[in-house]
Specification:
Length: 210
């Protein structure tokens, strides 16, 4: 297993202007991951592939994650005058956090027989700033997986050689793996509706003539 913290230090030595955040993982037998800033992400990924001590020449998995808008609650201690006496009180403040989309890549070295190293990238938001650099030019195994992420989450991968839907058909609206995706209840495109699909489709059947 590659030490993510040591690898982060090596990256920052090579790219002193980059931002690389260590993301902890509290799950048993899991390791931290590295969140790369989007400006330097491609060059950092190239370094991880080509560096003699790492040689992360195999990308085994790429997936998308959707984070909705969220209000984070934080407890803080402040001093206030209570009944004429200064006391330390605990208050809860709310901080809104804008939603974003994320890609997660698992890298291994087939040459050196080590890994994984998990790297991440995040979009600016979930609406009009959903571009991330494609890693397909570095690892060909990312090609179909980034297409799937684009199809199901809506992330636009700059530099991808063939970015088009891979599961849903061209012209399909929205991205089905987003947490706020609302499936249509008009299933006219379903050639043989049945069970729950049939029940929803019947809502759009012409009314029976009397």
């Amino acid at each position: 297993m590659i030490n993510a913290e040591q690898t982060r230090a090596r990256i920052l030595e090579k790219f002193p202007g980059a931002t690389v955040t260590l993301i902890p993982n509290e799950a048993p037998n899991s390791q931290p991951s590295l969140l790369l800033d989007n400006v330097h992400a491609f060059e950092i990924a190239k370094f991880l592939r080509n560096d003699a001590a790492l040689q992360l020449d195999y990308l085994s998995n790429a997936t998308g994650v959707d984070f909705l808008d969220l209000v984070l609650k934080e407890k803080i201690k402040t001093k206030k005058i209570v009944e004429g006496v200064e006391k330390e009180v605990e208050e809860t403040i709310e901080k809104p956090r804008a939603g974003y989309l994320e890609t997660v890549y698992h890298l291994y070295s087939m040459t050196l027989k080590h890994g994984p190293l998990v790297i991440r990238m995040r979009t600016e938001n979930r609406t009009d700033q959903v571009h991330l650099p494609s890693l397909t030019p570095l690892w060909r195994s990312a090609e179909f997986q980034e297409r799937e992420i684009y199809d199901l989450y809506g992330i636009l991968f700059d530099g991808h050689p063939d970015l088009r839907r891979i599961l849903m058909w061209e012209g399909f609206k929205d991205h089905p793996m987003r947490k706020d995706y609302a499936e249509p209840d008009d299933y006219e495109y379903e050639p043989t509706p049945h069970d729950d699909v049939l029940a929803k489709a019947k809502r759009h059947y012409p009314a029976a003539s009397t």
